[in-house]
Structure formats: structure tokens, C-alpha cells
User: Which sequence fits this backbone?
């Protein structure tokens, strides 16, 4: 029989679905696959080799969908972990975990859509900072604290005065998966952007253990710039700024922040409907911003462009166009090709998510994690076969 470390090395190259099936092979294999060291090895292998990535798509009132990034052939309906009404909004993904949300006043669910395990976060009552203020928006973002090996959820509650809906102030709490508790942290001193005009989702992006947001420089700190990239570290629980590309032309431009294979990227659409996409190749280094592509009419004529992923050979970039279709953009030939995926909803909001075995809780921590009903039967069968 092969040594356990060799078995583990081989198993890291398999998808999550296969690994869950292989837990029933023997007690040794089950012990290896369930171990925290293997879970980290598998995640590292999938990330480093750009393997086993999926698009998880939210849609307004039409549920959740999953698409394999390698095949891009069919959209599969994904059943949310709980049956609350309207659970079809997702936050950013982090190491295979996503937040599934419904009503802003209902606690979100931390979910691994590949292992099908989930955890309903503990409730945290909203406290109003002043009597005359009204609740405006509730935003959630998910990040990973590598120093403490802890997944954290940030909740930002925005308040306004009366019916004006204009931002007045915010309160911020952070949830620790390890402690299963919420704590107050320094407030976000600026209003947060929506993903789009039809969604109340926070347009947030995780890189280097921090939540990044493109915000309007409403305080006019930088007279020559109307936008700033602000970051909040879930490890240190502090705010800091990440510089924009030097000499970028942002006057009258529409700007969006994204992440492409672990790097911050910036989409800048001019009034001529030309989209320029910049990538920060070395995090925190202003000079490392590099223009990846520039595309516009007649190839693409639209107002919204979202980069999602590189092809396996790195020669193409998958783009979401106006939240209605996907295209491959060839970086060398500067051409586009439509991607035909059956079963896609008319409008969708995709998140790239790596398959992982990361658990949204542990059986020994109070209410712990839960498993979908259809998975419980499989667990019993595995235990019986050991």
C-alpha cells in the first residue's frame, strides 16, 4: 500500500465530487480527505494550477446556477442551502465559500456549494447610531484571515435621513467563524457602491486578505481624482488606500473594480464606449498596473464589462458583457468569440469560485455546520461501509 503522504498528493488533483465519493474507500482515505492539512493542500493545488473553477451565478428572482469553467457548456440549477424566499443573491467568493443572502434583515448563510455544507450565521441586531436616522442599506462581504486561519464576514449598515436616501453614516460589524460571534470594528467612512443599479449587493473584491471597494472620492481628498480604491483588512481590521493606475484618464469615465486570477483589475469605460482593463500585477505597487486590453465598437458596444477568468493557456480572457452574455477575448488577435451556454438565465451576476473542501463550520462549535438533506443519506451510507 502506498504511504499516506503519496496518497494525499495524488488525491489533491481530483475534484471535490470525486473526493467525497472516495471517502468511502477506507478509513485511511476518509481520514486523509477530512484532515485540515489535506483541505489546504487541495485548495492550494487547485488555485496554483487554475483547476476546478466554476462560475456561480446569481439572478434576480430566478435562483442560482453553476457553470464549469473548463467546459462552459451548460448552466446547472443549484439549490440554495435553505428555503428562505428570494435566496438568489450571492456575495463574493473566498476559497470555495460564498455568502447566500435574502432579506437584508435575515442572517446570511455561509455555504460551500461543492461539499453542500453550510452554516446560518448568528443574528446580530442592528443598532441605530441616532434616533432620527433611517436604515438605508445592509451590505455583506466575505474574507479570509490567514494569520488566524479564520473566515470573517463584514457587515456594513448604512443610514440616511428621512426619505432622502442620501448616505449619512455607517456601522460596521465583523463576524468570526472561529468564535461564532460578531464584534464592532472601525466604520466605513464612505458610502459603498452597488454591484449594479438593480442589485443591493456590495461591489466588493477580496485580494491579499482585504475587501476592496472602488468608491467615489466624495470628500475631494484628491482634487485630480474622483475615485479611490479603498481596502479593509479582515486580519488587522483597518482601512487603507490602494493607488489607481498612474496617469489614468478617468474624467467622464465609468469605472468598475474586479479581480482576475488573484489580481486587482480596473475596468474603465470612456464616453466613446471603449473599455480599458488594467491589472495590478504586484499587489500594492502602483507602477505594476498594466493595461491588459482595450476593446470597443464594433467588436463590443456596451456599458458594462466584467473580466472573469483567463483561459488555460492564458491567451484569452472570459468577459461578462452587460450581464447578458459571455465572450472570449483573444489577447493577441484582439478578437472576440461568443460563448454559448445552454440554460443560462436572461440576466446573471457571476462569481468565479474554486472548488474546495473548506468547511463553513465544525461539528464541535455550537450549532456548527449543516448538510443538505440529500447529502445526509450519503453520509450515513459512507459511515455504514467503513
Assistant:
Amino acid at each position: 500500500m502506498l504511504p499516506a503522504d503519496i496518497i494525499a498528493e495524488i488525491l489533491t488533483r481530483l475534484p471535490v465530487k470525486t473526493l467525497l465519493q472516495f471517502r468511502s474507500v477506507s478509513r485511511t482515505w476518509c481520514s486523509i480527505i477530512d484532515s485540515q492539512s489535506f483541505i489546504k493542500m487541495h485548495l492550494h493545488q487547485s488555485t496554483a494550477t487554475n483547476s476546478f473553477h466554476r462560475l456561480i451565478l446569481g439572478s434576480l428572482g430566478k435562483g442560482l446556477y453553476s457553470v464549469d469553467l473548463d467546459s462552459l457548456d451548460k448552466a446547472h440549477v443549484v439549490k440554495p442551502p435553505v428555503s428562505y424566499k428570494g435566496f438568489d443573491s450571492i456575495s463574493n467568493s473566498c476559497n470555495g465559500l460564498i455568502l447566500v443572502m435574502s432579506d437584508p434583515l435575515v442572517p446570511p448563510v455561509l455555504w460551500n456549494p461543492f461539499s453542500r455544507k453550510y452554516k446560518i450565521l448568528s443574528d446580530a441586531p442592528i443598532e441605530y447610531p441616532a434616533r432620527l436616522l433611517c436604515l438605508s442599506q445592509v451590505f455583506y462581504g466575505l474574507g479570509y484571515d490567514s494569520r488566524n486561519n479564520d473566515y470573517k464576514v463584514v457587515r456594513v449598515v448604512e443610514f440616511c435621513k428621512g426619505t432622502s436616501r442620501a448616505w449619512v453614516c455607517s456601522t460596521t460589524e465583523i463576524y468570526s467563524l472561529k468564535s461564532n460571534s460578531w464584534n464592532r470594528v472601525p466604520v466605513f467612512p464612505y458610502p459603498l457602491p452597488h454591484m449594479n443599479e438593480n442589485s443591493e449587493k456590495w461591489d466588493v473584491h477580496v485580494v491579499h486578505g482585504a475587501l476592496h471597494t472602488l468608491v467615489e472620492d466624495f470628500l475631494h481628498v484628491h482634487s485630480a481624482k474622483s475615485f479611490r480604491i479603498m481596502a479593509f483588512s479582515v486580519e488587522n481590521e483597518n482601512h487603507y488606500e490602494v493607488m489607481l493606475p498612474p496617469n489614468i484618464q478617468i474624467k467622464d469615465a465609468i469605472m468598475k473594480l474586479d479581480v482576475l486570477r488573484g489580481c486587482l483589475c480596473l475596468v474603465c469605460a470612456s464616453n466613446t464606449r471603449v473599455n480599458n482593463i488594467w491589472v495590478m500585477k504586484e499587489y500594492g505597487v502602483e507602477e505594476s498596473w498594466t493595461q491588459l486590453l482595450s476593446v470597443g465598437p464594433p467588436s463590443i458596444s456596451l456599458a458594462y464589462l466584467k473580466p472573469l477568468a483567463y483561459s488555460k493557456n492564458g491567451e484569452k480572457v472570459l468577459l461578462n458583457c452587460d450581464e447578458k452574455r459571455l465572450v472570449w477575448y483573444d489577447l493577441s488577435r484582439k478578437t472576440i468569440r461568443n460563448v454559448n451556454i445552454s440554460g443560462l438565465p436572461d440576466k446573471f451576476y457571476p462569481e468565479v469560485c474554486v472548488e474546495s473542501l473548506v468547511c463553513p463550520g465544525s461539528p464541535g462549535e455550537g450549532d456548527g455546520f449543516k448538510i443538505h438533506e440529500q447529502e445526509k443519506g450519503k453520509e450515513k451510507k459512507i459511515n455504514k461501509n467503513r
